[in-house]
Amino acid sequence: MIVCAAVIGQANNPLYLETFQQGSSDDALRFHYIVHCSLDAVEEKLALPRKSPGEPSDAYLGLLYPTEDYKVFGYVTNTRVKFILVVDEPVPKDEEMRMIFKRFHAAYVDAVCNPFYSVNTPLTSSSFDASVRTIIMTL
């Protein structure tokens, strides 16, 4: 079950961060901290050399790191926009996570293609939020 979803901009600025777990504001702050800490793991994975020079990079980064209660997964676009999902038990299989991230990325693309959206500003679109919630609830 996904408990938090985040979109992080090129300059590591949060564009969207939503929690899907009932709780106090301390829980929301905890997820902000987890997502922020995951950015170091994303940078480490991006710095790893490719297996061969012409090999295309995989946008899905996989498991970034586990915490005591959650597992954090990542995905990065060609433009260095990062998608972070914090997952509770049971953890979806790797192929399921890839599909979730692809759907999350597609929802992001739809949101930023809006001519009224300013690049690198928070995503406040209600349709984007509804799309993300639909993706999360289909698990």
UniProtKB/TrEMBL annotation:
Name recorded for this polypeptide: Trafficking protein particle complex subunit 2-like protein
Family: Belongs to the TRAPP small subunits family. Sedlin subfamily.
Source organism, top-level taxon: Eukaryota
GO BP term, example: endoplasmic reticulum to Golgi vesicle-mediated transport
Entry coiled-coil feature ranges: none
Any single Gene Ontology cellular-component annotation: cytoplasm
Pfam families documented for this protein: Sedlin_N
InterPro entries in the record: Longin-like_dom_sf, Sedlin, TRAPPC2L
